[in-house]
Amino acid sequence: MLNSLSGRFLILTTIFVMLAEILIFVPSVARFREDYLLSRLERSQIASLALLANDAIDEDLQEELLQNAGVYNIVLRRNEARQLILDAPVPAPISKTFDMRDPSAMVLIRDALMRLAKPEPEVIRVIGEPLHMAGLLIEVAMDTGELRMAMIDYGLRILILSAVISVITAMMLFFAVRRFIVKPIKRVVSSMKTYSQAPEDVRGVITPSAGVIELREAEETLQVMQVQLTQSLRQKERLAQLGGAVAKVSHDLRNILTSAQLFTDRIEMSEDPTVRRLAPKLVNSITRAVHLCESTLAFGKAEEPAPRLTMLRLADLVEDVMLGERLALGADEPIELREIVPPTLELRADAEQLHRVLSNLVRNARQAMSAEGIAGEVRIEAQEDDHAWFLRVCDTGPGLPEKARTHLFTPFQGGTRKGGTGLGLSISSELIRGHGGTLELERSDAEGTIFLITLPKGALAPV
C-alpha cells in the first residue's frame, strides 16, 4: 500500500499540507499574542476611564478593575503628562518592555517564539496607543503566565485543525489520484501484460481511453508500438515459413542441378559444333544456380558462430587473401592486386571471419572490373589510431550503381554484379558487427569504390 503510487502520494500530500500549516502556524501565534496584548491595553483603558470619571474610588474597586484588565498597574499619558491611574503591588521586577504601537511582523514573530520557548512567568511592560484618541500613550505591567498558556492552547487548536485538514485533503487527493492517474496506469500495465502473453493476438492491443493528456499520449504511443510489433511478428513468421520452404526447395534443387552438372560434362564431349558451343553457357548457368542454392542454404541456417577474437598480424592475413585472388585472376584480366599494410600492425579479430570478409570485398571488386573489361587495381589499406583499426578495400572500377547502393547490405537485394545473390555483403556486414565494428561504403563514384571496415580497440563498457 505505502509502496504504491497512490500510497506515496497520500504520504507526501499529508507532509506537504502539514508543512504549509506550520508555515501558517507561526505568524498565527504571533498575531494571537499581539491581539492578546492589545486586548489587555484596551481593557486597561476602559478601567482607567472609570477612575477619571470619579476620583473617589475605593481600593477594592481599583483592585477589581485591575483584575478584570489582567494587569498590575495602568499608566496613562494625557496632555504630555504621565499619570499613574491604577496601581497594585507588582510581584517581581519588570523584565522586558514591548511597544505595540507599530511593531514589524518579524519582531512580533520573534517575540512570540521567545515567549513559547520560555516557560517561566515574568512581569513585562506593554506600551500602546489609547483607543479613540483618549490620550497619547498607555502602558501596563502584566504577568506572562496566562499569556503563554493562552498561546499554547491556541497553537494546539491550530495544530489539531491543521492535522484534520491535512488528512481530509490527503484522502481526497488520494482517491482523486487513484481515479484519474493510478487506475489508467494500471490499465496500461495490464494491457502490456496481456499483450506480452499473446503478441500476435490483436485483441491485446490497447484502446486509448484516458482523459489525462499525458496518459492518453502514452496509450496512443503504446498502441502504435503494439500494432507495429504485431505486424512485424506476423511478417517474421511468414518470412520464417517462406525461408523454410525456400531452404527445402534449394536443397532439392541443388541436388538436381548437381546431377545436371554431371550430364553437362558428357555434353561438352559431343562432336556437334553447336552443342560444343552452347555447352559452356549451360555449364555456367547451372553453376550459378548451384551457387545461389548453396548461398541461400548457408544464409538460411543462421548458424554463424561467434567470433573468437585474438591478436593477429594483419599483413600475413592480407597476403593470404591477395594470394588466393591472384591465383583466381584470369590471363585476360589486367587487374593489379596491392596491399598497403604496415608489417607490424596487429589487430584483434577472428582470423577466419576477417579473411572471409576481405576475400569477399576483393573478389567483388575484381569481378565487377572484369565484367566491365576495365584495367586497374584493387588494394587493401590499413591504419590505426588510439580508438580503432581501419581497413579499406579500394578499387578503381566504375563505381556501384544507384540501386546497389540503396540496398547494399540487404540480403538478396544488394547484389553489385549480374548473377550475384546479394548475400556476400550482408554476411560480411554481419560478421563485422559481431566484432563490435562496422562495414560501410565510404565512397563510390566514377573514380572507384572504397569500403571501410572499422574495428574498435576498447572493450565493451559494462552496463
TrEMBL record:
Transmembrane stretches, start-end: 6-30, 154-177
Keyword terms of this UniProt record: ATP-binding, Kinase, Membrane, Nucleotide-binding, Phosphoprotein, Transferase, Transmembrane, Transmembrane helix, Two-component regulatory system
Reaction equations catalysed: ATP + protein L-histidine = ADP + protein N-phospho-L-histidine
Molecular-function GO terms, alphabetical: ATP binding; phosphorelay sensor kinase activity
Known EC number: 2.7.13.3
SUPFAM superfamilies xrefs: ATPase domain of HSP90 chaperone/DNA topoisomerase II/histidine kinase (SSF55874), Homodimeric domain of signal transducing histidine kinase (SSF47384)
SMART domains, A to Z: HATPase_c (SM00387), HisKA (SM00388)
Domain called Histidine kinase: residue spans: 248-459
Domain of life: Bacteria
Protein name: histidine kinase
Organism from which the protein derives: Roseovarius nubinhibens (strain ATCC BAA-591 / DSM 15170 / ISM)
